[in-house]
Structures are given as C-alpha cells and as structure tokens.
Predict the structure.
Amino acid sequence: MPNFDLSGKRALVTGANTGLGQGIAVALAEAGAELVLVGRSSSTETLELIAQLSGPATPSEIKADLSDLEVVQGLIGEAEQASGPIDILINNAGIITRADAVDFTEADWDSVMDVNIKSVFFLSQAFARSALAANRTGKIVNIASMLSYQGGIRVASYTASKSGVMGLTRLLANEWARKGINVNAIAPGYFATNNTAALQADSERNTQILERIPAGHWGKPEELGGAAVFLSSSAADYVHGITLPVDGGWLAR
Ligand code: NAD
C-alpha cells in the first residue's frame, strides 16, 4: 500500500509564515511530520494552525533572511543542531518584482534571483551535504511556477528564476537520485496569496485569469498540500526530477 505517512520525519519549510508555505506546512503536519518553520517574520499564525491539529509535535521556528547567502548556508546546520536531522526540505520562499523589461533594474533582477533561485540551490546543497555525510535519504520539494513553463509579462527576473528552478530540480535529481535524495518541484497555478495580490486587485487581469482557469477559481493554499505530502513521502520514492503542476487545469488550456 502506498505510504503517505510522514510520522517520524522532520520537514523544514521556508516562507512558512504565510500563503503557500503555510498551507504546505499545515499539510505536512497533518501527515505527521515535525516542522521547522523558516520565515523572515515570525510564523505565529502557522504555529497556531498546527497547534489546533491533534498529534504533531510543536514546530520549531527560525527567523532567517534568505537573500543573505551566509544565512542560507548556515540554516540547515542551525536547524539540525536545534531540532535534529532534517528529512524533508521545502524550498518555498519567493518574491516577485513587476516592471517593463526596458525599465528593469539590477536590483529588480538580483533581489528576486537571490531568494528564488540562489537560496534554493545553496539550501539544497547544505541539505544534501548533511544527508549524504550521515548516509540518510531525503526529499527536496521546490516551488516552481506557471512561469517555469510560460513567459509571463513584466516579471523578467521571476520568470528567469522559476524557469531556473525547474531546470535545477532536474539537475539535482540527476546527481542525487542514486544517493537516495528525491528532488522534485510543484508548479502552483494562480493561488490567492500576497504574491498575487496585485493581480487579484486588477479587475481586468483578475477576470482574464479566472476565465482561463478550467477549475474556475483561484487556488487556495490548502489545495497545494496533497502534492507536497505526496512528494515528501515514501509514496514518491521513485519520482525524481519532475515539476508537478497544481494549477486548476491552467496548463491544459
Ligand atoms: P507570499 O508572498 O504570501 O509568501 C512568500 C513567502 O516567502 C513569505 O513567507 C515570505 O516571508 C518568504 N520570503 C520572501 N523573501 C524572503 C527572504 N528574503 N527570506 C526569507 N523568507 C522570504 O507568496 P506565496 O504565493 O505564498 O509564495 C510562495 C511561493 O510560491 C513563492 O516561491 C512563489 O513564487 C510561489 N508561487 C506562488 C504562486 C501564487 O499564485 N501565489 C504561484 C506560483 C508560485
């Protein structure tokens, strides 16, 4: 029987204080995992939601700015020293900057690339180094985007970073599959979070987006949980290098 149970596993989720990271953290806790919540700001709301579940241990919390490479490189060590080995890494934290390509600045480029792709690589590297040194298996789930497949508009660095996340997921899977580390990604469609607040507030874009989603509604963070639990569990032991769209059918159009 496929095993989706995450009891006895410890999962570190970046950007766990809100939005999709919060939805994923709650779903992993519901599946039995012990959580390490990483955020720029405090994850109070996520802690409260997990406390309402019966069973999972109280999560630990680390405040970290993932745009700082030194912080990123020290994060797995810090988490493991405080809580114990990390079995599952969810690279969720991400930002977006919107401007016409002709107006895009170096800061618009670097700020997004630092968080969305550089931190994903170096956090995954630190996770794999620790797991391999201790002969442990592990699961990495990266959060990609529809803009891993499509071009988008006015989001040059976001598209570059999320297309990079899909490629990096494949590369890391190729290097680490034989060593017992699964690297996969989830590509969320259009979910109602802070990240998409500008689109939701623009009534013309909001209508265009809703008309194109076969499921007919913006995704809710809890609708991402099943895919995250699957890719984090032993049910996905033979799944390597995929980017799984969870998009209400967006890419099917
Ligand atoms: P959000 O803005 O609600 O959450 C982003 C999270 O990333 C927050 O927890 C924030 O604290 C964290 N974060 C940002 N910069 C950070 C930094 N420097 N250090 C530490 N943490 C940092 O947006 P969301 O929609 O929940 O986004 C989560 C992920 O999902 C992102 O990678 C985003 O690109 C991706 N995504 C979202 C959608 C969507 O429709 N909402 C679609 C596709 C992909």
